[in-house]
Amino acid sequence: MPAHADPWEELIPAFQQGDSSAFNAFFREHYKPLCYFAEQLTGNTAAAEDAVKDSFVKLWDGREGFQHPKSIKSFLYTATRNACLNLLRHEKVKENFREEAKYLDASAADAPVLQEMIRTELMQSIYKEISLLPEKRRQVFNMVFLEGMSFEEIARELGISVFTVKEHKAKALAQLRLRFSDRQLVLFILFGGSLFPAFR
Predict the structure, then answer these.
(1) pLDDT (tens digit, 9 = 90+) per residue, 116-132?
(2) CA angle at residue 185 from 181 to 188, to 5 degrees?
């Protein structure tokens, strides 16, 4: 073996084959710098860590396609940046909705019954769709969005890894977005938990 061989390049075959120790090596190398990078974009430590963990989940899912350590680093930074931008857009949607909700509440006296009918029907439709999710996916969605539990708390309660929790969350949202807009889902997350029972 050449004396100048890059030890990171030597990890690639094992990483592609699903070796957890190889993955952990890349995780230890890049996690803290990525968290710093993400925090500069979001201004929020917890959100930054979530974005970075999402990026590592995607890296693991696509591990067979990475041929070089530099491509792994590039992917992680790009995925983290995109996750942060998505988070910022999501927060903007939530803020816009809150402003609209204030307007609706202020004008509720004009048509309170119709407003509540529309809101309730939407809540019921989303609730029904969530009830059709696979069991673990449904449990994770409930724990994250309606009970406000952290990924670590959910992982401990369900006996699964944090990465698996995040995968269930992402797949649940993807399935719900086939039928509902982000604005409608934000409405459910803000108000649905007080209207409907938990999905356990």
Answers:
(1) 555 667 778 888 888 88
(2) 145
What's the burial of 138, exposed, middle or buried (CB within 10 Å: 0-12/13-18/19+)? middle
Could you tell me the two tokens for 177? 């977005």
Distance CA 186, CA 147 (A): 15
In 3D, which of 129, 123, 130, 134 has the Cα closest to residue 168?
134
CB 63 within 8 A of CB 73: no
pTM of the model: 0.49
pLDDT of 104 > 80? The answer is no
**Using CB atoms within 10 A of its CB, is residue 109 exposed (0-12), middle (13-18) or buried (19+)?**
exposed
Q: What tokens appear for 114 in the block?
A: 């119709």
Which residue is listed with tokens 């491509």?
71
Contact 132, 179 (CB under 8 A): no
Tens-digit pLDDT profile for residues 131-190 = 888 999 999 988 887 788 888 999 999 999 999 999 999 998 888 888 888 777 777 777
In angstroms, the Cα distances linking 101 to 10, 67, 93, 183, 199 are 55, 49, 12, 12, 26
Tally Cβ neighbours within 10 Å of residue 12. 19
The rounded distance, in Å, linking the Cα atoms of 165 and 67 is 27
SS3 at position 51: helix
